[in-house]
Records
---
Amino acid sequence: MEKESFIPLVVKWAQSHGFKDIQANMEGYETPKSYERAADNAKFTPDVTGVNMFNRHYLEVCIKSDQMRGNISKWKLLSELAGMKGAKLYLMAPRGHVRFTREVVDQYNIPAEVVKID
């Protein structure tokens, strides 16, 4: 499963929940701002960002994979940034990935809201 195929669903969810100024990591939308980790120059680009209640929130597609280490680092960074700005990190999980996502969030103590998308 490719997470890129779920980004349009996340954009649709964000629009239906009142998010404005939506930026998405897909064609037809402005690409969200990338963040770079100074320690190893790793770049992190959010899947989707949107403004709701004057704050820019981060929306990430979450699917099971073998390379979770990079995703966990990205989620921790985005949740930290969101927390500093009074915003939220939403982890958007397709059917079959919700429980896995909740377990990862609990295991690594990541402050994020898990949302099921279809």
---
Amino acid sequence: MAIYGTALLALCTLIGVALGEALGMALHVKANVGGVGIAMMLLIAARLWLARTGRLTPGLKLGVEFWALMYIPIVVAMAAQQNVLAALEGGPMAVLTGVVVVAICFCLVALLSRSAGAHHD
């Protein structure tokens, strides 16, 4: 049932986009701030939760892994559509937001790596 993996990705994407839009509005930036990254972090968290609770069926795992492999091409395609110059002209808040989001993601990746590694030992 690989379709469940796609459904999980769609749910994470909707939540991530909504949170990215809300974050953009809160920071007074007329853009989605980190919605795709938030969606991918939600997908990773959901996959870990499903694996820990024993609910990650082979079909669901196949769907989630497929979209995990497609992550980089999707992000590159979406980033190509964004207007970087407009973000830079938006002032230092847009640049600061980007730097903070990247730093948070680095920390979360390290945290998730450690927690996943601790369970495999």
